Amino acid sequence: MNYVDIDSAEYPYLLKQIKDPPVKLYFKGNWDMDVFEEMLSVVGSRKMTGYGEMITESLVSEIAGNGITIVSGFMYGIDAQAHKAALMVGGRTVAVMPCGIERIHPEYQAELYCGIVNNGGLAISEYPGDTPPVKWTYPRRNRIIAGLSPVLLVVEAGMKSGALITADIARRYNKKIFAVPGPLTSSVSRGTALLIKQGASLVTGPQDLLLEYGRTKTGRFFPGKDLQELHAGQKKIIDLLSLGPLEIDEIARLSGKPVPEIGADITALSLKRYLVPKDGKYYLSQGGCNVD
What we know:
Blueprint: E1 3-5, H1 13-16, E2 24-29, E3 39-43, H2 50-65, E4 69-72, H3 78-88, E5 93-96, H4 110-118, E6 122-125, H5 137-148, E7 151-154, H6 162-172, E8 176-179, H7 190-197, E9 201-202, H8 206-210, H9 232-241, H10 248-255, H11 259-271, E10 275-278, E11 281-284
Parallel strand pairs: 3-4, 3-7, 4-5, 5-6, 7-8, 8-9
Antiparallel strand pairs: 1-2, 2-6, 10-11
């Protein structure tokens, strides 16, 4: 069983600074200290709305596309969407599990778990083996999510939610907190509204978060790839898809190019693994999920 001890030079520096860091971090994936160099923690409601799904994908894909590792808690809803958005652009993401590292929870997210550990990310836990999750392991897990990163992003949160617990922990750790504003009629926007009232920074776009990491402009980062190999039409497609997934007809309309020409560029970009098709749309990506 793979683990990193708190006394090891490879133990994440920021996590070691919290009041009660895990003595051991068990992990799945390839432990690389570069993963921990720049991290953003993302949390939110399990009762994710369509708005929350869209905003998470938009923000996280841009941030992960700039080489910043996304940390979240692997639960369904905003957590899972954050992990997926990072993978979709070839970014790295760390799943902090509320159970033993040999257990996938929830188990129906096995493909997502494989995608994380097979594409440069990690699944980590302070619990060994097949330890099952129990009620108290979730809030305990949240201190790790908050501790790993200098910044916490809250997308959606109810008034009594794990996301607000994580935000409270992050505040005590002197982390920078960002919250996404939402419709006043939504119960999962009340928690983020409260955070903003309490002093969290309001998110207006990915640039608000990227500035925390010294990024003065947005742009896509594809590990191991050179965008100079692409011609202007292919770069235009990447620019369009950086705003979100699109169907081929939408790409053609927005770029002002005929569908056959766009189709040829999409084929070339897909073969080079810049894009991945899903449900009739195209997403920015680098590699897929190996579930074997």
